[in-house]
Amino acid sequence: MACSLIFGGDIATLRAMSGNDALSEPANMFGDLTSVIRDADLAVANLEFALSDRGAPMRGKIYPHKSPASALAAIEDVGFDALNLANNNMLDYGEEPLFDTLKHLADAGIASFGAGRNFVEAAHPAIVVRGGLRIGLLGITTTLPAGFAAGAETSGVNPLRVTTAYRPLRNLDEYPGSEAIVETRPVAEDLARLVADIGKLSRETDIVLVYAHWGASMNEQVHDFQRAIGHAAIDAGAAAVFGGHQHVVSAVEFYSGKPIVHGMGNLVFDFVAPFFTAATRRTIVFAATITSSGLEDCRLICARTGVNGPVTRLDPQVGEGADLAATLQRLSEPLGTELSVDGEAIAVRAK
């Protein structure tokens, strides 16, 4: 029993799919990666914006966003099977767009996970069957704007809180104004809940995959809390952990022989924030074969983000693709990962 997996980064489109021109043609959004996504037995990504034509911006959000409901046509056309909703933009326009998104995806036959009408729904996994395997998908987010975390009777995302502390690097009496060491750790009760949820899901399925919206925006660094969450998830029974939110690619780590992809970057991102750089236009898509014993033949596909246009595949041996491959090597090797260019992709494995 086996099936092929594609796992992509953030999908944050502002395009209405009218079909009146190339930009609004559903078949064009994912560009060179269309066949890669469509041919996979299981294609998963993070849906960053709600799919809705309703709602009003939440107070306090600097950059509130949602996607036109018609954008679903492109996601459906390319063949995504499941989407994570646990992130820091899903409720930018309130709960009505979230409810619309849940309904639109369900009507299209696309599984969703990581958000819901209450905490129980938000924490509930999606289970899909491919190649004779029952595959469980769980989504959590450590990025939590005020009011986004689901509650007993309130809608929202599946939260995993993190504490942050700043400790002076040097004696402040001798070195006033010295820079700080940032210390982060997951809240124990939230991490324990995730561990319990993974354990339960692993008993009900053949394979568990976890998505975590984590890290710091525009920061390729892997923070202590990410490794703590990723290691705990794998110890609890997850076969892999996939991360995003940073807008830039980050390291690929192997822990107990299982991959933790710390940041996949922006797959489609039509909004260009003032602080975005050239690095925000580079992304990776993780490809592998799922078997009952885990993920095999793990590979990274390099691409240029679709920004008001199609996604463009990059050759990891030349130009921009080679630069991205070098970045991945620099970030991942210290975490015990071996990378090697293999044709049009980058093979990744534990050292």
Question: What does this entry look like structurally?
Answer:
There is one protein chain. The mean pLDDT is 97. This protein has a single domain, classed as 4-Layer Sandwich (Purple Acid Phosphatase, chain A, domain 2). The protein has 351 residues and is an alpha/beta fold. It is globular and about 65 Å long. It has 7 helices and 20 strands.
Q: Which regions contain 5 or more consecutive residues with pLDDT less than 50? A: none
Can you say what the CATH homologous superfamily is?
A: Metallo-dependent phosphatases
Counted up, domains total 1
Given helix and strand content, the structural type is alpha/beta
Quick recap:
With 351 residues, this protein is an alpha/beta fold. Helix content is 21%, strand content 32%. The protein has seven helices and 20 strands.
